[in-house]
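Same chain as my last thread, 400 residues:
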Amino acid sequence: MKKSFVTIATVAVVGISSHFAIGTAHAETINNLQNKQAQIQNERSSIKAKLSEAEGQIADVLMDLKELNEEIKQVEQALKANQKMIDDTNKDIDTKKKEIADLQDEINKRYDILSNRMMNYQKSGGNIGFLDVIFGSNSFTDFISRVTAVNKITSSDADLVNQLEEDKQTVTAKLDELSELQTELKGMQETILVQKEENDAKKKELKQKQDTLQAKISDLKIEESSLASIESEVNRQLAANRAASNPVASTSSSSSKSSGSSSLTQLSSGASVTKAGSNAAQIAINAGYPHLGTPYVWAGKGPGGFDCSGFVSWAYRQAGISLPSSTAAMQNSGTKVSYSDIRPGDLVFFNTYKTNGHVGIYVGNGKFIGAQNSTGLAVADMTSGYWKNHFSGHVRRVVK
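reply #2:
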């Protein structure tokens, strides 16, 4: 899902870029540029609305995930509690089974004792019967004593056996109850496990939805960033056309710029400069480091805010070299070199909203310093990710 959405978003950005591409071969009228500006602003408003909607949907998903996680927690607790009851019941069942076995042993022993006693009463000297035990008394008193003794012995043993049988029945009934409880607890455990599986499936579905929405937001931000770059170029050309329509202001501005840069070496197309007594390339690179994090500002050319070409022009100005202030002009400054011969200080170009639409200064180890609208002034890696995919291969050397 994410892959397909990225493809769609990429096609959309390419389509938008093609639709709003700013021609460099001929100047457009102020009216045309204003129309493009309005169209881009409408597109950006639409994308921002989609972003807001997607972010709202993610908020809903996160709320659902929070509630589901709480439910999952409760189910886990129920599983543990129910399992403990099952374990306790199993222990009780084992205990009751042992009690029944012990009672049965005791009953068997009592039956054996009673049987032996009856046999002893039936014997007297080897062949005298039970009645002889009673009628062999020496006196009436002796007779009564013998009868009483026999009755007590037989009745007490019989009562004990009966009591053991009753205890056995009681324990057996309790064992039956525990067995029924065990069956119910196992059924409950299965129900809870089914609920757990359903919750896990819901969580997986919500996470997939969250990932899809995050991908959508990421693609919308890329699209919006691309439109912002296109709008910036439209604004630049619009400002240039307006300045051209007011020659007095343009002349004054040119005069001021000329007087302010009289100490700089001006680079023409195809020319390169050696700055005597210093490493101009390293000076330009070092000039940017103290300002890392400076926000991206359209047409920004100073430490308070930079755009990509504005930073490169400003950095080399600190080294005493004057560069054009637009990427369109910079792509022809100095001399072209191959990427295999690249060295710190060379200008590197990237295909963003247009061919060679972004520029930075190579610092070595596959990295460049530049003003990006997503990060402000930063050192970025051009050997992986976005900048690797958008590196045009175009490298210009402006100092020898």
